[in-house]
Design brief:
It is found in: Cell membrane. Belongs to the nucleobase:cation symporter-2 (NCS2) (TC 2.A.40) family. Azg-like subfamily. This is NCS2 family permease. This protein is 66% helix and 3% strand. The protein has 434 residues and is mainly alpha-helical. The strands form two sheets. The chain has a two-stranded antiparallel sheet. A hairpin with a 3-residue loop joins strand 2 and strand 3.
Length: 434
């Protein structure tokens, strides 16, 4: 019956292979159940509730992806937008986390409408590859700065703004050790390298007395502190439009790029152009649905995980792989005490390593063309140095359109890029300090 539901044999797989692939994917992305609560709890959100919301959002998203799209792709709250949610929207712009959840909900609805109407295809076609690559790389640099700051490797300095911290302190030492563990294990192609690194640093931190041990297994905590706490009307009434714009753009680019990349590896995009592929359309619908569900549960935007490629490498070809991921995330809700024991020094090396992977996108930029390279570099630089993904996108799109116009190449700019650039100009006019 399972084979018929997921067309397992038709895709050249077996139930056993799909289950193993699901476990492989879960191990490579399970680090998010420790990292996401650590980031979002900085806004005042209940850490245990965020932990459960993270697991449930990942389970719902992965289940919908498996049952509706029948693709072997796991989903969970995405890296980058969780930091944007916590450190920019709440921390810098001063919105409440309830309003930020409202913005996530609105972005999910917009993403859903874009996918249903086909505007998403037009938007993706209109944004230059150099900008898409720069967005990913810039988010990586933003995550790296956050991790270096939280671990104490980088500290504030009144003369130079930032400086090197005390590398002999426990925080920096544990972070550095964790990074080497993760990088070495990943280089050796050990499944779950990031998760192993987080758990290893957590164990060392507890043994050294740097953090306390709260246990491993217990009944799942209540999600009530964050469940349905989103303030949609508050978000709509506080000029948060530019925040929603950033969320939608990153969600669309991140999800589409990941889904196409992983699906091609799995051989699922061979029946026609990717932009008209039925499986891709359903997968994007699943992605946007998961964003809406996650905002209601109490977490930042949910997205497809590129780590799903590990499951595809292990043989995953159907939605049974994603459904396995969903079940494992549900079981992970019983690990709340362990999640509460994970210190920032254990999640910091994971963030730094994820950043190194994201920075590979710089290779996709056409460096020989200044009108492509300069906006891309400004996009990436502005994100960490203004502590905002929104500012990075704004600098990049406005510069891209401006340089093309000034060099007589305005015809090369798609209407979508002009519209996004114009929206960001309006943002700077009406919200100059945002």
């Amino acid at each position: 019956m399972i084979e018929r539901i997921f067309n397992v044999r038709e895709r050249g797989s077996s139930v056993r292979v799909e289950l193993v692939a699901g476990l492989t994917t879960f191990l490579t992305m399970a680090y998010i159940i420790f990292v996401n609560p650590d980031i979002l709890s900085s806004t005042g959100m209940d850490r245990d509730a965020v932990f459960v919301a993270t697991c449930l959002a990942a389970a719902i998203g992965s289940a919908v992806m498996g049952l509706w799209a029948n693709w072997p792709i796991g989903m969970a709250p995405g890296m980058g937008l969780n930091a944007f949610f916590a450190f920019t929207v709440v921390g810098t712009l001063g919105y409440t986390w309830q309003q930020a959840l409202g913005a996530v909900f609105i972005s999910g609805i917009i993403f859903l409408l874009l996918s249903v109407t086909g505007i998403r295809r037009w938007l993706i076609a209109g944004i230059p590859q150099s900008m898409r690559s720069a967005i990913a790389a810039g988010i990586g640099m933003f995550l790296a700065l956050i991790a270096l700051k939280n671990s104490g490797i980088v500290v504030a300095n009144p003369a130079t703004f930032i400086a090197l911290g005390d590398l002999t302190a426990s925080g920096p030492l544990l972070t550095i050790a964790g990074f080497f563990i993760i990088a070495a294990l990943d280089a050796l192609r050990v499944p779950g390298a990031i998760l192993i690194g987080i758990l290893a640093v957590t164990a060392a931190s507890i043994l050294l007395g740097v953090s306390s041990f709260a246990g491993i297994v217990s009944a799942p905590p209540s999600v009530a502190p964050t469940f349905m706490q989103l303030d949609v009307w508050g978000a709509l009434g506080t000029g948060i439009v530019h925040v929603v714009l950033v969320m939608v753009l990153v969600e669309v680019f991140d999800a589409t790029g990941t889904l196409i990349g992983v699906a091609k590896r799995a051989g699922l995009l061979i029946q026609g152009p990717t932009h008209t592929n039925t499986g891709l359309s359903r997968a994007l619908m699943a992605d946007s649905t998961a964003i809406v569900a996650g905002s209601m549960l109490g977490t930042s935007s949910t997205t497809a995980y590129v780590e799903s490629a590990a499951g595809v490498q292990a043989g995953g070809r159907t939605g049974l792989t994603a459904l396995t991921v969903a079940v494992l995330f549900l079981l992970a809700t019983f690990l709340a005490p362990l999640a509460g024991s994970v210190p920032a020094t254990a999640t910091a090396p994971a963030l730094i390593y994820v950043a190194t992977l994201m920075l590979r996108e710089f290779a996709e930029i056409t460096w020989e063309d200044v009108t492509e390279a300069a906006p891309a570099v400004l996009t990436a630089l502005a994100m960490p140095f203004t502590y905002s993904i929104a500012n990075g996108l704004a600098f990049g799109f406005v510069t891209y359109a401006g340089l093309k116009l000034l060099t007589g190449r305005a015809r090369e700019v798609h209407a979508a890029t002009w519209i996004v650039a114009a929206l960001f100009v309006m943002r700077f006019v009406f919200f100059p300090e945002g």
